[in-house]
From TrEMBL:
Location of the Replication protein A 70 kDa DNA-binding subunit B/D first OB fold domain: 1-56
The protein's name: Replication protein A 70 kDa DNA-binding subunit B/D first OB fold domain-containing protein
Pfam families: DUF223
Highest taxon above the source species: Eukaryota
InterPro entries listed in its UniProt record: RFA1B/D_OB_1st
Amino acid sequence: MYAEIPGAQAEKFKEIIEESKIYTFTKFVVVPSKPAYKPFPNKYMLRFTPWTQVSEEKDVPDDFLSYVYTLVPFLSLSSRVGLQEYFTGMVLIVLCSIPN
């Protein structure tokens, strides 16, 4: 599930939430996901409110997922041209060896 912080609350939370950290949220609302540019297929999303509370989790299991994504085969990318339902980006992984 993904979350949205409306503009009115953005200033409040940008000082609290940092990338690559894990948080627990309370006092939020669950709403239908937006029709366009969803990060991944999901029926619902979280929306922060002025009363949403955020606390950082310090004891995170080693196997806790850091990233969530949906891969689309390269040959299927052209089928997404002009579609706005999902955010579509490209990840390029280059493997190389460095001689000693």
